[in-house]
Automatic annotation (TrEMBL):
The chain crosses the membrane at residues 6-28, 40-63, 83-100, 127-154, 160-180, 192-215, 235-252, 272-296, 316-337, 367-390, 396-416, 423-441, 453-475, 482-499, 505-524. GO terms for cellular component: plasma membrane. It is found in: Cell membrane. InterPro entries: Na/Glc_symporter_sf, Na/solute_symporter, Sodium:Solute_Symporter. CDD domains: SLC5sbd_DUR3 (cd11476). It is a multi-pass membrane protein. The keyword DNA damage does not apply. The keyword Cell membrane applies. PROSITE patterns: NA_SOLUT_SYMP_3. Residues 543-569 are annotated as: Disordered. One of its GO terms (molecular function) is symporter activity. It comes from Nesterenkonia alkaliphila. It holds the Pfam family SSF. This is Sodium:proline symporter.
Length: 569
């Protein structure tokens, strides 16, 4: 690829962007209501149907970073790379639904997980979860703008900054008007486009590059580990850290929780199963482009592995399909960027204004809508500024996911265990973060045997926590306990003396284990029990009865009776 002569002209790229974002803006304006409703702006009235919900979940989980990181994994680790990236990411979508059904049972009309944590514990737990989501969503939004700016700069004479501004403006325009409703409805369109183009573009790239003979002639470009489908290097550096990270994403991420609260309660299981299959197929398929690049011996432009997919597209696609490829990636990153904006607006609307700034039970829906829209503008501006840093996308994904790992056990336990307290929640999360950060950034002197040994033991416990939670979600408490204990005992012999060498993985696992051990230590002897039925009385719609009846959900005509107007006892 000759970067000195862009494939697409400035006018062509601008026309594509105007057409894409113009159509999405038109769709958003079509669902805008004369009497705006704060609850519909955040969760579309809790009545989104199967098709929209499944497409929205798939599109939100598939973003530019997913595609780029999957291809990078394929280029770095060989054919097992995209499998580890896409398969475990898909399974994490699947693991949401058993916990999701319990969450909706406890708080059917909630808008954010943090809002439920306030009803369960208090404002400190709420703000911890809300704060982590603000940081995570800002990083996610920034990553998508970086990917969009880099892609536009690579294919056209437009600069990186101009590309970032174009994408940021387009996403903000159509999401600003209708919030989550616009995000979910445009997600449906975007995922349909992605599926169509992936089915066309990937086969063309493969056959243009000489598939299948390229996999025979290029085998010499691979190392022994890259040639091994069961590569331990790929699992320890890619698969295992991603299992830990995306489980945290599934539980702690407001963009996922928002869709959980929006979909009809009886459709949670089929929605997440469908999204699991859709995500796996598309992300693993795109990741194979990285594998092909490895076999071809291609060197990433400027040494940046994020350029692998654009390079392959530029080298092996005709100009017309390059233009369609650009729209595919722009659609992928836009579907997640608008979800980040919707998540951020919901957090500020419900958690910061609705339950902490406004007097208890006196939040005004019109003010909430104003606050939500201002939040989108501020968040977009901040993300544009941060995009100039051009940080490594995959590193940021794993870091944020691991950061959320400190919250996973306390959050899940809060929906099942009557004994967990506000103090234990806060102490566990802060302690886990205090241990995670020095381990993650190699501030711990591992040459001292005691420190290395401690990290290995905690990481082994973290393996038990992760696998135990997964088993608990599907098979119940007894299965979860047995799986957790066995996984820890089986991991210990392999972990001691070696697991601390895998910094990303061990830091993630330590975050899980420390938060879990502290919660258990502080709550096992607690004799007080929480009544989960009170959550529904404390978490509900912010709009009054009349407004709720005037405003039907903006996506599917399913009624949404008003709840407790966000009041607390």
């Amino acid at each position: 690829m000759d970067n000195s002569s862009p494939i697409l002209s400035t006018s062509t790229v601008l026309l594509l962007l105007v057409a894409f974002y113009g159509f999405t803006l038109y769709m958003a304006m079509r669902i805008r209501r004369r009497k705006e409703n704060a609850d519909a702006y955040m969760t579309a009235g809790n009545g989104v149907g199967f098709g929209i919900a499944a497409a929205s979940m798939t599109a939100t989980w598939i973003w530019a970073s997913s595609m780029y990181a999957s291809a990078t994994s394929g280029y770095t680790y060989g054919i097992s790379g995209p499998i580890h990236y896409g398969l475990w990411g898909a399974f994490m979508i699947l693991f949401i639904y058993p916990f999701g059904r319990r969450i909706r049972q406890v708080a059917p009309k909630a808008h954010t997980l943090a809002e439920v944590m306030r009803a369960r514990h208090g404002s400190s737990s709420q703000l911890l979860l809300a704060g982590s989501n603000v940081v995570g969503s800002l990083i996610s939004l920034m990553s998508n703008l970086v990917a969009g700016g880099a892609l536009i700069a690579l294919f056209s004479p437009l600069s990186f900054v101009q590309g970032v501004l174009a994408v940021a403006t387009g996403v903000l325009l159509y999401t600003f008007w209708s919030g989550f409703r616009a995000s979910a409805l445009t997600d449906f369109m975007q995922v349909m486009v992605m599926m169509l183009l992936v089915g066309i573009i990937i086969p063309i790239i493969f056959f243009s590059a000489g598939f299948p003979s390229a996999f025979e002639t290029g085998a010499g470009n691979l190392t022994a580990e890259q040639s091994n489908f069961f590569s331990s290097e790929a699992f320890m550096h890619q698969g295992a850290p991603y299992i830990a990270a995306v489980l945290a994403y599934a539980i702690g991420n407001q963009t996922i929780a928002q869709r959980l609260f929006a979909v009809r309660e009886d459709l949670i299981k089929p929605t997440f199963i469908t999204a699991t299959i859709g995500y796996a197929g598309m992300v693993i398929g795109v990741g194979m482009i990285g594998v092909l690049a490895l076999y071809l011996g291609m060197e990433p432009l400027d040494g940046d592995s994020n350029n692998i997919i654009p390079q392959m597209a530029a080298d092996y696609l005709p100009t017309v399909l390059v233009a369609l490829f650009l729209i595919m990636i722009i659609g992928a990153l836009s579907s997640t960027a608008d979800s980040d904006l919707s998540a951020l607006s919901s957090i500020v609307m419900a958690d910061i204004y609705g339950q902490n700034i406004a007097s208890r039970g006196k939040a005004r829906p019109k003010v909430m809508l104003f606050v939500g829209r201002v939040t989108m503008i501020v968040a977009t501006t901040a993300a544009v500024v941060l995009a100039g840093l051009q940080l490594d996308i995959l590193d940021m994904l794993v870091f944020v996911g691991a950061l959320w790992g400190a919250l996973v056990f306390p959050v899940i336990a809060s929906f099942y265990w009557e004994k967990i307290t506000n103090l234990s929640f806060v102490v566990a999360v802060l302690s886990a973060l205090a241990v995670f950060i020095p381990v993650r950034f190699d501030w711990v002197p591992l040459e001292i045997t005691l420190f290395a040994f401690t990290i290995d033991v905690l990481a082994a416990v973290g393996v038990g926590v992760v696998l135990g939670l997964m088993a608990f979600g599907f098979f119940g408490l007894r299965a979860g306990k047995i799986t957790g204990v066995l996984a820890t005992l089986l991991t210990l012999p392999f972990a001691l003396g070696s697991l601390h060498e895998y910094t990303v993985l061990s830091a993630s696992l330590v975050a899980y284990s420390v938060s879990t051990l502290i919660v258990l230590a502080m709550c096992l002897r607690n004799n007080r029990s929480f009544d989960f039925s009170t959550v529904q009385q404390r978490v509900g719609n912010f709009d009054d009865d009349d407004a709720a009846q005037d405003e039907k959900p903006g996506i599917e005509p399913v009624g949404a009776p008003a709840g407790a107007a966000g009041k607390e006892k």
